[in-house]
Amino acid sequence: MRTVLLAGGGTGGHVMPAIAVGEELKKAGFNIIFGGGSGMEKRIAENYKIPFFGVQNVRFSRRNILENVKIPILLGKGISQAKKVLNEYKTAAVFAKGGYASLPWALAAKSLNIPVVCHESDLSMGLSNKLISRFAKKTLTSFPETKGGICIGNPIRGEIFSGSKERARKKYGFSGEILLILGGSQGAAAINKCVFQSAKALTGISEVVHITGKCTEAPDMKGYHHIEYADDIADLYAAAHTVVTRGGAGALAEISSLGKRMIVIPLPKSRYSRGDQVENAEYYMKNGRCRIIFEQQLAVSELVRAVESERKLPLGKVSDAHSAKKAADIIAEVISRELDY
Fold first, then answer.
1. Of 21, 206, 243, 308, which residue is least crowded by CB atoms under 10 Å?
2. Quick check: pTM over 0.85?
3. What is residue 169's predicted lDDT score, i.e. its pLDDT?
4. Of 77, 80, 132, whose CA–CA distance to 106 is shortest?
5. Is 157 annotated as belonging to a binding site?
6. What is the CATH number of domain 3-156+324-340?
7. What three-state secondary structure class fits 88?
8. What whole-number distance in Å separates Cα of residue 277 and Cα of residue 177?
9. Mean pLDDT over residues 159-165, rounded?
């Protein structure tokens, strides 16, 4: 049985699509392992019973350029660690999902002449994928406008399409449809603060389920349900009439493919972000799939007004499936073909 290593990490957007591809590769008879760094990818991979290996990774710092002096040494260490794993498992191919955690694995694979296939979820390509795409056998993208790759859509786990609102209601104790608010896999302080301040008004419109990330300040009131992290997001999607989210490409693809009303509060361009979430959100807005509230405009009145407006829209006319349900199948097939050449 040939082994494929999934490489990625740091955020859910670099992990969950890789998991989706892994599911399809398993169906095709491949053995799957996951390579990342020290982030949430370890917990997620283990939840899916995929063997996980973490190595030293590096991250380009926009805040302190001097920190980048350490990159060559740390990257070299990560590559050396990754090569040991790739050799031990006689890895046939590496699927690199982007993000800094995928870079040591892709470079290690290159040094061992192991084929690499990479995928970019965002509208603009991130730094790691820009480097990896130079030697990857295939570079795939989610958006047709992304330069340097072939657009196949964003890989989405099959379970996303089989969520149960009844299961969610039983677990969390709400009764009807919900307003689902996502802070992203790492939480979002600005969104959380605004939701806390507007909780009373929002619960007057609908019951609210708010996924915050690590948080100790959530209000305690009827109709407001606070969760730090949800492993049953498909069930919550099924129960939602509207979803408030950051602008990560993975979340946008999932919510859009389910035809949910969507309010996007993208992470702004700053020393923490290259502005990819703004680009993603604007693409969806131009195609009639979401409403945007830019973070600098985020206020209680703006959020409540947006939720009230979206609530009036019929679900069926809000969105269609932007990201093909078969993207994960396509990537698995691409990897299989590369190994057959």
1. 308
2. yes
3. 95
4. 132
5. yes
6. 3.40.50.2000
7. helix
8. 27
9. 94
Is 185 labeled as ligand-binding? yes
The annotation status of 319 as a binding-site residue, yes or no, is no
Extents of the domains making up the chain: 3-156+324-340, 160-317
How many percent of the chain have pLDDT more than 70? 93
Average pLDDT value for residue range 83-107: 97
Tell me the C-alpha to C-alpha distance, in Å, between residue 35 and each of 43, 54, 143, 224, 335: 12, 6, 25, 37, 17
Residue 319's φ and ψ, nearest 5 degrees, are: -155, 160
13 annotated binding-site participant: yes
Rounded to a whole number of angstroms, the distance between the first and last alpha carbons of the chain is 17
Fold designation for 160-317: Rossmann fold (3.40.50)
d(CA 188, CA 215): 10
**C-alpha closest to that of 133 among 119, 151, 112, 113:** 119
Burial zone of 47 (CB within 10 Å; 0-12 exposed, 13-18 middle, 19+ buried): exposed
Cα gap 160→162, rounded to integer Å: 6
